[in-house]
Amino acid sequence: MSLVFSKSFDLFKAAKWILRKDIRSCLSSLPEKVEKTNADEDEMTRIGRRPRSQNPMLEYRHIYPEFLPDPNPNWRNSLREKLERADMLERRKQIDIPEFYVGSILAVTISDPHAQGKTNRFVGICIERKGCGLRAEFTLRNVVDHQGVEVRYELYDPTIQTIQVLRLEKRLDDKLYYLRDALPEYSTFPVDMDPEILPEGTAVPVNPVQVKLKPRPWLERWERQELKGVSNIEEHLKEKDRVRRELRKTPWEKYDLMKQYRKTVPIEDQNEIWGEVYNQLQQMRMSTKKTARKRVITAPKSQLG
Known about the structure:
Layout: H1 2-28, H2 30-46, H3 60-63, H4 78-94, E1 105-111, E2 119-130, E3 137-144, E4 147-154, E5 160-167, H5 239-247, H6 257-262, H7 267-294
Antiparallel strand pairs: 1-2, 1-5, 2-3, 3-4
Helix pairs in contact: 4-7
């Protein structure tokens, strides 16, 4: 009896060893599949095609960031957010609010009862875009008569008549406040600037220009901010400024997952929001593209005799 039990136990151990070996061989083949997938994505990127995302609606969070609510749960109200989204869609049916980013050059025309033609037009570079819902706003900056001028607009202000994108592009930083301390040529744009139209299907270009700051004093301590669009910060710093910058660095914040979570809206809420407004926004984009194709663009005629 004991001999039979020992033989059966040995057979059980042998079967267990064979099963483990098979599992290890299966797991060893998984990285090859992952590497093959990554190679396919690199090949698609090389030939100019982006790999298809899982949810195309989530790409709208960069084009229409104001539709996402405030990530702070203390300011969340589902009923107010739903009503605001309905108002925003109705407003977009009245005027065309184009796609733009921080760094794009815009021309905004608003109703002004005190102006000569009852309208006022301002051209400038977008240095900030913030807010959510009907409280979304953006700021334009331009240098007029050697004086820096900034105008802040509410995106869904009923006095806005047109928003025209003269140059669609992005910059290296999310905010361009440092243009206030930069040389004037980086913020100077002609009032009669002609629009630069990108071919259809072209990705939004990123302008890699790095501005030069004027000598101190500055409005903010730009050396303590990780700015990619400024080239000559180190030229205006003293040794004590560099020491203070090192003391105030917080490199551990990029590993703080809870801090990143508090600054973002849960993916479930985003799917619900985009599922509500995706169809209407897509129809508006298609109608805008059809109108742009019908528009005839002529080169400006020379005024010289």
